[in-house]
Each structure stands twice: as C-alpha cells, then as structure tokens.
C-alpha cells in the first residue's frame, strides 16, 4: 500500500453568522426546514479547527447580512499558482457574494485577480488535480466558462457533464484524494451515477484507480470531502466511504456538517483552497 503523505494547505472560510435557507436553488433546499444557526456555527468552528489541528492555515472572510450562502466559500473563486479566477453566480440571490470575495483577494495582496464573463461557481465546479482542472457543467457553470478558465489560469481544463440535479456542482460528486505529481498519478473519489456516460468513460480512463462511492455515501455529501493527501475530512454519515479510504491508506476524519446539508453543502463547500 502506498505511504500517504499530507501536504500543508491554505484555506479561506466564511463564518455562517447569517446562514439560513431562505430560497431554493437546488433539490436539497427547503425554506420550510429551519436552520439551527447556533448548531451551524458550532459545526463550522469544528471544521475550521480540524483543519488547523491537521496543520493547515485557515483564513477568514467576514460574512455579510443578506447573503445566507456566503458560508460556502468554495463557490467564490478558483486559485491556482497564485492566479485568482473569481465567480459569477447563476442564481441572482448569490450574485453579490462574488464582489465581496474579489475584494478580499485584492486587499490581501493578490494582484492577478480576474472576474469572469461567463457563469462559473468557483471550486464548486472546478476541481484541481495537480496537473489539470476538472470542470463540471450541466446545472450551474456555463460550458464556455471552461475555456475561460483555461485562458485565465493557464492550465489544461477537462469538461465533465453532471446529469443528476441532486449533484448540481462537481464538488458534490467528486474530489481529489491525492494530487498528480511527477512521481504519482494521483487519485480521486467520485460517484459515477452523477455523470453522463461519456464523462464516466473519461474518468475511468484517466483515473483507473479511483475510489468509487455508492448512492448512500453520495446522498450524505460524502464526495464533498477535503483531502491533504493523507487526512480526508468527510461528513459524519459517510462511513462506508471512510472505510474504503482507510483500506487505501488514507486517514478519514469525520465531522458533523448536517446543518449545511440542508442547503446542499458539506465540508468542501465551506472551504476554498488557496494555491500559491
């Protein structure tokens, strides 16, 4: 079994001070189901502190009233090699989030920040493998945004089509366990049924050693995980996936993200990785 080596990461997160489900823009959201804001804050704090215990740096952006989904920082941008491609949201309710995140990057010294002309929802639909950007489409991100990302970030982009509205962002159906490097092909985990037949074939060719998740793990947002190459942060319900990952030499770390699932989110949705 390969020796799994963690690498330190830098994350940006937004406290869920104003988190609520006030509208429905995905099948998981129901405004009639109340959110426990206190519980959400406790779960978010535990997630943040878990990253710090694992040796990672977590920075925070101040939340804004009237933007209940701003806690889902992953949707705000894609950062590769210090270049920042901002977000352009499909839902009008989230549109204003993009400018607040853009300002954060500018105020923190990022000079190469580009705001997109096409709709893209950041790391919700853009997943960096270490060598290429896997790019989701089908529900949120415009297919033309994939070419825009390639031109802006200067990295290869591979398009994947999502077909199940429950898995409306790529990061709800796939995540990177270990990045591709000179000495390693890298590894991903994904839920095949979330993808079109052609996209499944592409993933099977590129990642023959992938960890495949079942319907139960997908439904609890088990694919909305965050890995540093060894430690894999997963929502608490993803027990079967955690066992599979442990069999592959990873160290699963389970956290309670149940409040965020009410809005169609999990650990990764709350976490934007900043790559220098």
From TrEMBL:
Q: State the EC number(s).
A: 3.5.3.18
The molecular function terms in GO held by this entry are: dimethylargininase activity
Keyword Hydrolase appears in the UniProt entry: yes
Instruction: Name the Pfam families for this protein.
Output: DDAH_eukar (PF19420)
First-level EC class: hydrolase
Query: Source organism's superkingdom?
Result: Bacteria
Q: Which UniProt keywords apply?
A: Hydrolase
* Annotated signal peptide: none
Q: Please indicate if the UniProt record lists Hydrolase as a keyword.
A: yes
Q: Which NCBIfam families match?
A: DiMArgaseDdahMtb (NF045659)
Q: Which family does it belong to?
A: Belongs to the DDAH family.
Q: What is the protein named?
A: Dimethylargininase
Q: Which organism is it from?
A: Amycolatopsis pigmentata
């Amino acid at each position: 079994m390969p020796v799994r080596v963690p690498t330190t990461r830098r994350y940006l997160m937004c406290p869920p001070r104003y988190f609520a489900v006030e509208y429905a823009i995905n099948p998981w959201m129901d405004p009639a189901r109340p959110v426990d804001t206190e519980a959400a804050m406790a779960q978010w704090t535990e997630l943040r502190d878990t990253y710090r215990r694992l040796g990672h740096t977590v920075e925070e952006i101040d939340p804004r009233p009237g933007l209940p989904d701003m806690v889902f920082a992953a949707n705000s941008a894609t950062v590769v090699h210090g270049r920042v491609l901002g977000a352009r949201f499909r839902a009008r309710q989230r549109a204003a989030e993009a400018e607040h995140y853009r300002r954060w990057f500018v105020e923190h010294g990022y000079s190469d920040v580009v705001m997109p002309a096409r709709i893209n929802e950041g790391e919700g639909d853009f997943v960096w493998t270490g060598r290429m950007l896997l790019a989701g489409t089908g529900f949120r991100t415009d297919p033309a945004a994939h070419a825009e990302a390639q031109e802006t970030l200067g990295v290869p982009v591979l398009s994947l089509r999502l077909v199940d509205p429950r898995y409306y962002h790529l990061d709800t159906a796939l995540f990177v366990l270990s990045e591709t490097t000179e000495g390693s092909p890298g590894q991903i985990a994904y839920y095949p049924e979330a993808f079109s037949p052609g996209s499944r074939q592409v993933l099977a060719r590129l990642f023959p050693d992938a960890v495949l998740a079942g319907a139960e793990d997908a439904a609890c947002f088990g694919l909305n995980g965050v890995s540093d190459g060894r430690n894999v942060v997963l929502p608490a319900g993803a027990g079967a996936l955690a066992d599979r990952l442990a069999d592959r030499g990873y160290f699963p770390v389970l956290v309670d993200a149940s409040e965020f699932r009410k809005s169609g989110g999990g650990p990764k949705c709350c976490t934007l990785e900043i790559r220098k």
